[in-house]
Amino acid sequence: MHAIRLEPFQDVLILEPRVFGDERGWFFESYNEATFHRLLGELGLQRPRPFVQDNHSCSQRGVLRGLHFQRSPHAQGKLVRVARGAAWDLVVDLRPDSPTFGRWAGVELSAANQLQLWIPEGYAHGFVALEDDTHFLYKTTDLYNKAAEGSIRWDDPDLAIDWPDAVNPALLATKDAAAGSWADFKASL
Hints:
- The chain has helices at residues 33-42, 174-177, 182-187; strands spanning 2-5, 13-16, 20-22, 25-27, 53-59, 64-70, 78-84, 86-93, 104-110, 116-119, 123-129, 134-140, 149-151.
- The chain is mainly beta.
- It has a single domain, classed as Jelly Rolls.
- The strands form three sheets. It has a six-stranded antiparallel beta sheet, with no helix packed on it.
- A hairpin with a 2-residue loop joins strand 3 and strand 4 (25-27).
- The radius of gyration is 16 Å and the shape is globular.
């Protein structure tokens, strides 16, 4: 497995697994704790808490999920990937003491490129499905806690996220359509 930083962030990583393929198909390790921890250590990053929950969603093209986060003490680190289809995945830095506070970055994850994204605690996360029947998998370092959940509008003008064309018009859950603004989030700190 190989890791590169998702710029401008030092601790959000794009992980590229080693894929073994032949005429029969392919195989790769989607998660190996020792390898993951070694990669983090090589980049000077701390080990996360253990993964305690796995989630799987299926979305049609144009479905946007996010921008979601959980507040401390239930903040979640997430290791995400797409097992079928394609999604544009993004993060927003929510850490007020960070030099990248309020900045965002995105990457395409797909069944074809087999990339994964490591998102440590302290980030909002969202994605839009670029294809019908997109299966999105994620491991989390804390259990979902409704009282700790938060969300920020996907189209907040202060964040100015440059979403791909698949978002127009975005298909949203009711709670995502009613999410608060970036200004509301900053005021809550």
